[in-house]
Amino acid sequence: MNFATPVNSDKLRYKIKVSGLPRFYSLLDPLLQEFLKMINEELRLNCIHARYSKKGNAWLYLTFPTETEQAVALRLLKKYNWKGRSLISTLVTADTPKTNMNLTYVEGNHVAKRPRLDIPLSEQVLMSTIPYHSIEYEEQLRKKSEEARILFQRFGTIIQRKQPPLAEWCAMRKRQLNSDLAFELSPIIPSQKVDRYRNKCEWSVGINPDSDSVAVGLRVKDSMDGIHYVGPPDCLRNLPMPMITLAKKFEDFVKNYSQDWRIWRNMIIRMNEDGEVMVSIVINQHLLDTEQLSNIKCSISEWSKNNITENVVSLYFQVHGEKTLADCIGTTIEAELLWGQKYIVEKLLNLSLEISPATYFRLNSLGAEELCKVVADLADVNENTTVLDLFCGSGCLALTLAKKCKQVVGIELIKANIMDAKRNAEINGIVNCEFIAGRTEDILDSVLNKLKGCNVTVIMDPPLTGVSTGLVRTLRKFKEAINLIYVCSNHKLPLKNLLDFSSVVRYWQKPIDSDPFLPLRVVPIDMCPHTLRSELVLHFKRFCVDDILSTKNDRPSKMYSNRKFKTKFNPRTSETVTSSIQPSASGVGGLLDYLKKIEERAYQEGLAKGLERKAFQMGYSRGLQCASANDDDQFKKNSSTNSDP
């Protein structure tokens, strides 16, 4: 009898991701323990491991021993109501083994493929792209609003813990707003379109894992040899119908093409609010001569003219290649226009923007208008204001503010976006804009030198990972910047950036030589319905550090209400713990007094754990030295006494 022998079974992972849970910071959280007990005892799911990726998350990764149990858990927790919350479960495929991905079991001398998960491919596409597709839109907004509130409650707690001088200021703000938050959290702005709102989609050419045939759709996972597994696009309610029908027609073209289908890479579709469509066909970088490329272009043009009935006004062709940082800044990598218009026009408030294949623009056109309105409201610019737009992309935010302010300076890494911004400024008759291509960290100093003496409002729309600490430090030292608008496209929120802007003292409690930017208001915008993410627009204002440190609170904060200090803490005059406090030479009693003083000072400066550890190490070693010295003296004294006749 031949038994199936598992290969690298310790590396196999059958996971699901459960989102919509209350935020937790430890697996020992009582509410989280109650949830885990429920899924194992009530639902009878054999969960063998639970893991979270980061403290403060509202989701959890659950691991199961077999794919069958994984599929059952995915089905039961798909839309499970628990304590008034609608939970969402999604499939996790990223942790499958990277070597021999499809080879799992050895039966005799034959290698068998790992059995596929018994979940419809369309369901996998939905779970990976629009996990909220089955939830009512009002419920989606409620969940995203609660997510934002919990996120900023956590942020406020971190500020008070890591920046003790800000505790009194936060308490004052809470009383002013009559809220549990020190920042004004506005109601979430809903999307004007709930379905069919996307203006851009990228289809991949690959293999349909159900039929093992060539297909065009959304990528589900990758295989060892670089071939993409794609799922059908029919079920996606966030995409306009022309995008879906064009994907099906392109799939038929790829299947019937005479050469190897692997030369095809992507089909990128852009669509404006007027229904005009721009199509870009991208092929992989193969060793093709000029004649072969010409034949491919002719085939694409002939196919499009004979088969496309949608309102396609532009058809582009591009060869995919590796782009270096120098390419992005120094050269413009453009697709080749085969026929039609060079641009499609998108309306943004009172502006007309020309959109090219490489233009950076929000995926929701009407949502982009709402974002521009919120930024304009928070920035509150006038004819004396200079707007500094960092990571400006194609200049959408800067251009909407240009006619209301004195001048606009935009900085962006990719030169193609800068060229789009300059072109659109010229089309709309805007002459007070300057757009600069380059790495923001490299050219910011020279730009700020030119803006000295101006009333500057900074707008930032950084990448999902946030910005560097050096850039934050540079902006804080630029005294002309009074207001700061931070557009966060990542619903996880880069807390380190916000703490760097808000910090009053460093971790060793020395005051920072620049005034902080403190958050006053947060506006969530639902840019992408049916997804987990929402955009957050934060308004920061510069405060004088002396005014913050002089803030008095009639009611002591909870963090320090139970602590009694012998001395008042002033971060501008505080001194580090040095030899001014030394253990006395009286042995253990002196050591305890020394540790007690160190602990009191550490609590005052908000560094109880670190300084307590250091104090214990210092005091313990010095106490041993004192005790040893006393013992030696006592021994000598006893010896001399015993030796006397």
UniProtKB/TrEMBL annotation:
Coiled coil: none annotated. It catalyses: uridine(54) in tRNA + S-adenosyl-L-methionine = 5-methyluridine(54) in tRNA + S-adenosyl-L-homocysteine + H(+). The keyword NADP does not apply. Keywords: Methyltransferase, S-adenosyl-L-methionine, Transferase. GO terms for biological process: methylation; RNA processing. Its EC number is 2.1.1.35. Residues 383-449 form the Methyltransferase domain. GO terms for molecular function: RNA binding; tRNA (uracil(54)-C5)-methyltransferase activity, S-adenosyl methionine-dependent. SUPFAM superfamilies: S-adenosyl-L-methionine-dependent methyltransferases. S-adenosyl-L-methionine binds at F391, E412, D461. It comes from the Eukaryota. Pfam families: Methyltransf_31. It is an enzyme of class 2 (transferase). PROSITE patterns: SAM_MT_RNA_M5U. InterPro entries: Methyltranfer_dom, SAM-dependent_MTases_sf, TRM2_met, U5_MeTrfase_fam. Belongs to the class I-like SAM-binding methyltransferase superfamily. RNA M5U methyltransferase family. This is tRNA (uracil(54)-C(5))-methyltransferase. It comes from Macrosiphum euphorbiae (potato aphid).
